[in-house]
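Q: Fold this one first, please.
A: Sequence and structure below.
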Amino acid sequence: MKRRTGNLLTDRPDLYEARFPDPDRLAGRWAEDLLGRYGAGPAVLDLGCGTGRDAAFLHGAGRRVTAADLSGTMLAHARTHHPGPVYEQADLSRFDFGQRVFDAVVCLDSSLLYCHTNEQLDGFLASCRRTLVPGGLLVAEMRNGAYFLGRDEPPAAPAVSCFTWQGTTYRSTTALHIDRAAQLLRRTRGWTADDGGPPVEEHSAWRLLLPQELRHFLTVHGFDVLALYDGPGPRTEPAWQPGAVPGTAADGDRIHLVARKSARRSVTRSAG
């Protein structure tokens, strides 16, 4: 049977939500808690919004939300199933919303790490600074590059998982590879389903940023880091709960970031 390339879950947003359910909207609640804790205004830009669940939660919490993603399929799903925010297509590494400005930018679930190169990360942070009001916030959560780069190669045996949705069982086989030269965590995932469809092979990668490296990029682009810690967060174990106090260490497998746009101008572009 011919194998096709693509991304099964981003091509099927309904399947994505079935595979990664978030019935308590933990990620959205975590983001809203930090926005409130650090005094962000009501206008929020959610970058890499995916299916729109978190953006819709922030909208329901009283925020004026614009949500952006590169995937037109995800955006179509979001508009139908998670109405409220204004949904727009945009590239994280070079977005421009014209004269519109925001009190906060939210970037969840490692979306920032799709900026693979220094130039792309420069573009992301320059765009964030341009679109934020003075004193505006950047809130993000992502994988911690120090956790992966400081460890041995992931296990050679691929991880296997399966789940059933609407009568169809989906099975995935996932292999990870640390590309240290490029500072990328590369993933190859194969999907099969018992509905007779062709297998799907996915190739994804995330930039592995070290905490101090991330601080440097933010400083260069005119941001003051208010918090940079490993937990608790929406994808840590144990997970964040209301009232939890942000930690101080940054050596776990996730990084949580709060930065404020400084009154000073950005210093210079980082080295490419």
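Q: Good. Now the second chain.
A: Here it is, same layout.
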Amino acid sequence: MDEDLAGVGRGLMHLRNDVVIGSLDPVSDLVPRKDEERIPEVAKRGWVAITADRHIRTRFDEATPAIEHGLRCVCRKPPGRDAVRWDYVRMLASHGDAVEQLCTRIGPAWLELSRLRTRHRDYQPGQPSRLPHI
């Protein structure tokens, strides 16, 4: 799990033996801190990244290596303005089958989770993550 979901990740680490947080042991020495360096390493190891950073899909310096190295990524959309960690755990659990299916796919792959649904999207280097409101 990405650092932006470390609180959720710590809890999940107690429930599953296949969840790690990049900045914590036992993988802290294996995972670079910068996204541009971390993405190839995570993809090379066959891991699925779980993050709240929706811009990885569109930022050129992150989306390009994600495509090149076949990164599989789960991105959660915030469940609400006053969301707490439990809201994120509930969202991941309610879409657990979709996350498990992503783990069996060949990357690159992007799975976006919201409270009510999942959505597969393509990486789009250099594209805005959302159209501006006019």
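Q: Anything worth noting on the second one?
A: Residues 6-15 form the longest helix (10 residues).
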